[in-house]
Amino acid sequence: MLLPRKSSDRGFANDGWLKSWHSFSFSNYYDPRHMGFRQLRVINQDIVAPGQGFPTHGHADMEIITVVLRGTIEHKDSMGNKELVKAGEIQRMSAGTGVKHSEFNPSATEDLELLQIWIEPAERGIEPSYEQVAVKNLEGEKLRLLVAPMQETAPVHIHQDVRIYRGEIGKGESLELPLAAERYGWLQMISGSLLIKDQSLKPGDGLAISREKELLITADAGDTSFLLFDLS
Known about the structure:
Layout (H helix, E strand, L loop, with lengths): L1 E4 L5 E4 L3 E5 L17 E9 L4 E7 L3 E8 L1 E6 L4 E5 L2 E6 L4 E6 L7 E8 L9 E6 L8 E7 L6 E3 L4 E7 L4 E3 L7 E8 L2 E3 L2 E3 L4 E5 L5 E4 L4 E8 L1
Parallel strand pairs: 13-14
Antiparallel strand pairs: 1-20, 2-3, 3-4, 4-11, 5-10, 6-9, 6-11, 7-8, 7-10, 9-12, 13-15, 15-22, 16-21, 17-20, 17-22, 18-19, 18-21
């Protein structure tokens, strides 16, 4: 079964310095029909104005993943990490027993755009931790594993039976999604256009996938990019 979540149907907040689109209920946006999907709790597309950002605040018992699409994040946290996270890099914080952090756009002229992702952990009360990696261009690969459970080989690791892939395909190219029949998926569009069975997906669209076998996707626009979440 395929259930689309159109970009225009997402929650939206405009705080002047921050424009944010919410695929699921978040902050002041609440929709009981869209509280998350399986372990996936939050997908926010954020655009942060130059010199602005999120002041110090806290989280607990959540796997928080940030994918930087353009610009740079200046990150500080209560674990002692002080980092710059650039476009093409991924940041993961396991909040566990509790962590405080701030995220700012250090540029005086350029917007920062990112995807903020929250995944519910398999275990509560773990020790907080931080991970940051640069992910190379796919270089001919159509799909690359970015995030996987702790015991598996991947650039970034989380405390949950969830895998996240980044896909990039050109116009007319096709790809079979690596989802087992008993698994669930969420596809989040970044750019371009995809055809999946009778669904057409554009930037910002999401698609909930339930127990589908041999699911083929085809790009009908150039430079099509997306994230695929493999969920239990």
